[in-house]
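Sample 1 of the test manifest.
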Amino acid sequence: MTPAIRSTMAIAAVWFCGVGAYLNVAEARGGLPVQQVQQGQPTSTTDIGDLEVLQLRPNFFMIAGAGGHIGVQVGDDGVVVVDAGSATRADASLAAIKKLTPRPIRYVINTSADPDHVGGNETLSKAGQTLFTAPGSIALPGNFLGGVASILSAEKVLERMSAPTGRASPFPVGAWPTETFDYPRKYMYLNGEGIEILHQPAAHSDGDVLVFFRRSDVVVAGDILDTTRFPVINVAKGGTINGEIAALNRLVELAIPSVPIVSREAGTLVIPGHGRVCDQLDVVEYRDMVTIIRDRIRDSIKAGVTLDQIKAASPARGYTRRYGSDSGPWTTNNFVEAVYRSLVQEKP
Amino acid sequence: MGSHTVLVNVVTARGDCRHGLPSLRTAVALLVLLAPPIDRNVFAQAELTGSWAPRNTEDISRDSYSVDYMGLPLNDEARMRALSYNASQLAMIERQCEGWPAFYFAQGPFGLRIWSDTEPVKGATISYTIGAWEDRAPMTIWMDGRPHPSQYAEHTRGGFTTGRWEGDTLVASTTHMKAGFLRKNGPPSSDRASMTSRFFRHGDILTVLAVVEDPIYLAEPHIVTKSFQLAPAPLSPVGPPCVSGFEGKRPGESVPHYVPEKNPFVDELTKLFHIPREAVLGYPETMYPEYRKKIKETYVRPEPCKRDCGAPPLR
């Protein structure tokens, strides 16, 4: 081989290596999942069946399409899941989690007792493994909780999901919370970060919690925040409009935007019960909307206007095209009525 | 030394030129065969990178009065929201550093610093980035064909933008914008809004045409153009920091707003300049020349200003 041909081949090799490197880069851009997610960059998404898995942080994911959104924290201690989606999608949700990590589910935390958030409890819990009987772990009876993952919630969620002896329970025993609390703040430290479970006693319902992953800087908000519609205020289950606003204010307090450096996209991420991932400003926008509508209805009540007259005046005007609906399980009128009833109940 | 010269030196370094020349021909032939195809569109593209100072020859604001939505194609929902807006919202700590949605780059008074990111082999442009400024986030225009993010993904201040060349015009498509305002006096834009922008370069002038569509708040597309002049000195690619402070509203205290039908400024322009209310409130048909013809017969010009012209009206 002449030196000239060797040189030519060398040049060609360099060219191929360059193109190959470029193709690898391109593949990595399109390839999923990406392990490292930069703040402010679009989240990487994987479709698993008709579920979408969004990677929000290196060890934090959101599963969409299984009912209410599911938050998934992954680490050496195992998996902490916030909400379990609906019962009919539980197997798909479990499959999605197993694709993320081989480690066992340790905790399922419920943000409320709604079926689209707790329906998958039993499936996810049974597929998991309690922290307390794992080899080398804290010594507890081998049959502690049947060995399954704990289900953690506010006390009211257990009340809503269970029933006194002799009466039919709305959910099977295996779906019931195994660990409950009835105070403002419960906390854990798992997978290298503090996890705060903050009870909001009368927001969407009486059993709502916000779950704040402090190092990941992600808050899972449940149905306190629902970017697809007006917030569902379940007055019959202890929800109130003022408690909802208080919960949204709590979310605004927890979340931190990118200040003082506003030239970059960064900050705390908030997973709503339904809809898209939010940041503080999105929560502010939603909170302001709810507050303004509450104020309009409150002013009408003070003026002695009846519920029917309030409905006719459309106090949600300005927001109905974005959040309202004339049909389905939660219409604009349902929301207006819930706000009205909540305010009337709270009147001294 | 050009690359050809380097190649000649490489292939002739160890031997006789008579032996080197045929090899050179072989090498060139091989390289031509192996060379990546050159995208002919590259030659049609315009150079957009650099610093572009604002010419500000366009009517950029129309927000000096509390209620002035002229030229905006608002729908009823938008009008309702705009009229409920109270500028004291800007005093809320959590809104002080809010900034504007992505379309502000073509609407605000600031210049643009644009740079590109290229891949190392073909030199293809991966992205253009329009730098940030005080109340505007950076906008990256991805040129590599990547898809827009999931419907569940976060919406950002800069939005998510992809671009393509149509001849020498860059056409950019932006989604995933944040909710915000079309003007600072309250006409809203929603997080469902999208924007198509076109970048035209004519010599040292860059003109941007932005078309904002919003199924929530706009009855028709909102169209903005803005021209920039190539600047000899670099503009900053980032804005200054934003530090919020107490301005009379504690977080979570209340949301300043006007209740329906109670905005005290709704007739201000009509009283001052006799502009019909429907034009002040941004009814779409009032944007067009036909509307001027329609009101020509009935419009009464106000008395010429004799003193304190441009000052706020006496109350």
